[in-house]
Amino acid sequence: MLFTTVLAESRKTPFDLSEGESELVSGWNVEFASILFAFLFLSEYIFLIIMALVLSFTLTPRVHVAIILIRTVIVRLTLPRVRYDGLLTLLWKRFLPITIRLFTLLTRGLGGTV
């Protein structure tokens, strides 16, 4: 669930909802040129590396950052673009009930003090 959220926050291929329109030339990055264009795309890939580091250090300490990055690239290459309704269905009908269940299990495990 967290890996899917990181992919959605990266705004790349499966979840590039703002740029997925066929009538756009290249979206918002048309106005950038030269070094600004390079910095813009470099910052997006640095974001992916930072998210891989966060996943590696906090949740799965035995998994290397390179494995998470390779998995991210494979998912981006193989999955088709997600439509808005597909993303909303995933979040509201899948992730929200799982999160509520996990929260209730956590509060029951702590004696209901949270």
Concise summary:
By secondary structure, the chain is mainly α. The protein is built from four helices and no strands.
List keywords for this structure.
mainly alpha, about 0% strand
Topology:
Elements: H1 2-9, H2 34-59, H3 65-78, H4 84-109
3D structure, described in words:
The protein is mainly alpha-helical and 114 residues long. Helices cover 65% and strands 0% of the residues. The protein contains 4 helices and no strands. Helix 2 crosses helix 3. The radius of gyration is 18 Å and the shape is globular. It starts with a helix and ends in a 5-residue tail after the last helix. The model has no long low-confidence stretch (mean pLDDT 79).
Contiguous runs where pLDDT drops below 50 for at least 5 residues: none
Total number of helices: 4
Largest beta-sheet characterization: none
Give the strand tally.
0
Order of helices and strands: HHHH
Computed CA radius of gyration, to the nearest angstrom: 18 Å
Mean pLDDT across all amino acids:
79
The end-to-end span amounts to 23 Å
Percentage of residues in helical conformation: 55-70%
Q: Please state the structural category.
A: mainly alpha
Task: Give the overall silhouette.
Answer: globular
